[in-house]
Amino acid sequence: MVEGPVDVELEDGTSVRSDRFMVALCACRRSKNYPFCDTSHRRKVRATRENT
């Protein structure tokens, strides 16, 4: 976690900004709000007979 506001430069050179007080950066790239974490990493697909 880092304290905001935060400017993040992405790999392609674009910059995104968050004005939130605390910001978590996404390391798993599952976030729909990448590069900021939306806790998508916590969602797991349960193993069933069809997808095992």
TrEMBL record:
Q: Where is the signal peptide?
A: none
Occurrences of domain Iron-binding zinc finger CDGSH type (ranges): 3-47
Q: Cite the entry's keywords alphabetically.
A: 2Fe-2S, Iron, Iron-sulfur, Metal-binding
Entries under InterPro entries matching the protein: FeS-contain_CDGSH-typ, MitoNEET_CISD
A Pfam family per the record: zf-CDGSH
By its UniProt entry, which SMART domains does this protein fall under?
ZnF_CDGSH
Full protein name: CDGSH iron-sulfur domain-containing protein
Phylogenetic classification of the source organism: Bacteria, Bacillati, Actinomycetota, Actinomycetes, Mycobacteriales
